Amino acid sequence: MTMTRTKMTMMTMRVEKMAGMAGRGRVPLFRRRVCARCRRGVLDQHQRRRRPLSSVVRSGNDKFTEMTSDLYSYMVNLNDESPILGEISDYTTGLPAGHMKSSPEQVRLFALLLKMLRAQRAIEIGVFTGYSTVGIAQALPEDGVLYAFERDPEILKVAKGFCEKAGVAHKVKAIEGDAAVEVQRLVDQGRSDFDFAFIDANKRAQKAYYEQCLKLVRPGGLVVVDNVLWYGRVVDSERNDKNTIAIRELNQYLREDDRIELTVLPVGDGIAICRKLGES
Q1: For the whole model, what pTM was predicted?
Q2: Is it the case that residue 56 has pLDDT exceeding 80?
Q3: Where are the transmembrane segments (predicted)?
Q4: CB atoms within 10 A of CB 166
């Protein structure tokens, strides 16, 4: 079926039930849609060959499977989820802010990336109930460590409890407080030995977190930023609230950053996977 550019750009739909929303900002988040398009950064001798965004959507570059609730459930059920992650998901779904949990397919992708990287050290900014925290920690080796930053002490207690129950507490260094301040402590120590960083926090602070994490991650390591499709609002010209503007600006900033190789995927509410360039 042939679709117009407008229809393709705007085609998003709400994923129900098991979706497990990904954002963890302190503002109301309206989730969760799967975007019809993703764009991949292309490198030529470490220099990005850029095209106007409008030229990306064109004939032959528009393959898209519409995600229905039934299809989403089918996909999720094909992936293994550990019993403890299922328990965290059930617990979180019952909370008023349950939509802020990472989605199952996100955490499965992170686990795969971590194992491919042979990651030893990881960072997570924004913990919430610990769904992604436990998933990341499970993918790390026994001597691995995850620095998990969360400013809400009550929700951090919940996450730490699930880490204990999952048997991964020895891998998780949970840090309570303002992530901008706490992460900067690692930067000030001259650390640059982390393999992976996941940013899912205050949307207007994501760019600052990205800059911090890019310093902390080794060449070849990954910085993953969540919510880059923002419920489809990034392509809605009538949406100009501060969070939406911040996400649009961050997306363009990542697209133009020649320090990274960028891949944006319609996983969860959209993730930007940033591979740090340079020699190890």
Answers
A1: 0.78
A2: no
A3: none
A4: 22
